[in-house]
Here is the input.
Amino acid sequence: MNPQSEPFERRIQALTDRILADYGNERVIDRLEMFTQPDRLIIESLIEKLFRLVFPGYYRDYTYRIYNPKNNLSALIEDVAFHLNRQIGIALRGSGQAFEGGIDQAAEDLTASFLERLPEIRAFVETDLQAAYDGDPAACDKAEVIIAYPGLYAITVYRLAHVLYQLSVPLIPRIMTEYAHSRTGIDIHPGARIGRYFFIDHGTGIVVGETTVIGDYVKIYQGVTLGALSTRGGQKLHGKRRHPTIEDNVTIYAGASILGGDTVIGHDSVIGSNVFITYPIAPGTRVSVKNQELLFKSGKGFVLQPDDPENDPARIM
Here is the structure.
């Protein structure tokens, strides 16, 4: 009998049986138990709540109807503590680790440790805000930077996630930075170490790898990659330095790629657009790509060299 001639309901039942049988292969993707990993949507909602704690006058909360702002923030802190504690507990259980005093106690301690560092995180973010305002003549005021700049958004999520990473909270920090990545196009691993006054201009396509170290007063533009020279070693490279070090007061322009754990960009250097660097650069160095030869073709079919005295844009048009 041609399968196409079977009743549709019978075909769907047969397909259902085949798909369900596929879950019995004991692979990681076959896991059926729910609530064994943190809930991505809850983590994303926690990010938005944390932003209201970092920037209380700029991110509105329509949930609470409390006229005293500090009472509102008190309720918000308790809400964050409750949900973060639960998600950390789930993450710890999923990690398979054993904790003295039990997982519940460990989750509570980690949640409290994170919230204790919130003033420290805000102090770092204040420097990032100042760097963005000082470094961008297009910024009308700091409120505009807070509300509208994707670079500050991604950096702030990183600052929050990095503290959880330092506390060895599994999975949640990566969920946070990948959420910022999806929103801004800026991919900062929570394990990277980034100093004060960090400014990302425009930002789309930026990659900052896990073992990257960035000093103070560093400014990077869109399309910059601070990555690994090679990942062919796979998991054998886990925990090893694979990404570059960027010292203080460095500017890296659009499209530059700086790769490798032994690559150090010395302080007060300027890295030009579209360069490819895999070796150390001395402090105070300016690196740029030699001017490429450009060809200009008019509608009449003429090809003009860039040094041609007749190479007048008005003439070409």
In short: The chain has three domains: 1-32, 36-191, 194-231+239-317. Residues 69-95 form the longest helix (27 residues). The chain has nine helices and 16 strands.
